[in-house]
Q: What sequence folds into this?
């Protein structure tokens, strides 16, 4: 019940973002059922948007899978950290089910728990609102395409870009390295599309993500704090 309580505002927010994703999904030709299934099994805004983009360009399955893997790679790190919050005697199947829906927000409320060990049912409670909110929002966004005017649909699609700005601006203001990486991604993405149009959008995104993130990690590594007393 505590997870359900804490996850309710997350689920409501996911519904709005999922609705915007549904507009994009409809634009590339996906049905409400297809959008629902994709959002249910890939609860990630950036990963889904990237996937919808390459689906719209008729990319091969391998490219879609690789791009989704790169875009969602941060969840591997989150899951690794979250696993340390579980008691050592937590059954393996609980770890698998909790790992199924590790999102930025659910990770945040889980890590913020004051108790030493995390009860997996707390995550299940949060997932009860997060997954339906995201999946149903995407499906309804696709359905709404047929009931709104072209100008209304265009306005709704902008909401997704607003969400991306809300994600990148706060950390960019706090860390100049992140801000520089964001600016570089804008510039190099534009140049890549201009000078390498023969390379698909998916492959360009994969290459730039690896190159820019890798360069930032090599030249500006995060310093580890020395906890030795």
A:
């Amino acid at each position: 019940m505590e997870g359900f309580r804490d996850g309710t505002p997350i689920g409501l927010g996911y519904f709005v973002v999922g609705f915007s994703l549904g507009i994009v999904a409809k634009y590339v030709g996906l049905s409400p059922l297809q959008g629902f299934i994709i959002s249910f099994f890939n609860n990630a805004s950036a990963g889904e948007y990237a996937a919808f983009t390459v689906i719209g360009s008729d990319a091969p399955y391998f490219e879609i899978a690789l791009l989704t893997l790169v875009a969602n790679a941060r969840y591997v790190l989150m899951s690794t950290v979250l696993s340390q919050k579980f008691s050592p005697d937590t059954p393996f199947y609980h770890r698998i089910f909790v790992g199924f829906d590790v999102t930025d927000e659910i990770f945040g409320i889980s890590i913020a728990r004051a108790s030493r060990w995390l009860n997996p049912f707390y995550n299940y409670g949060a997932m009860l609102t997060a997954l339906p909110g995201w999946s149903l929002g995407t499906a309804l966004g696709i359905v709404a395409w047929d009931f709104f005017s072209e100008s209304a649909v265009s306005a709704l699609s902008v909401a997704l870009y607003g969400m991306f700005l809300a994600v990148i601006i706060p950390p960019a203001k706090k860390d100049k390295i992140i801000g520089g990486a964001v600016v570089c991604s804008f510039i190099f993405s534009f140049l890549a599309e201009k000078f390498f149009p023969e390379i698909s959008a998916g492959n360009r995104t994969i290459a730039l993500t690896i190159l820019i993130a890798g360069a930032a990690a090599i030249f500006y590594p995060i310093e580890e704090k020395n906890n030795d007393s």
Notes: The mean pLDDT is 80. The first helix runs from residue 2 to 27. The chain is about 75% helix and 0% strand. The CA atoms of residues 25 and 52 lie 6 Å apart.
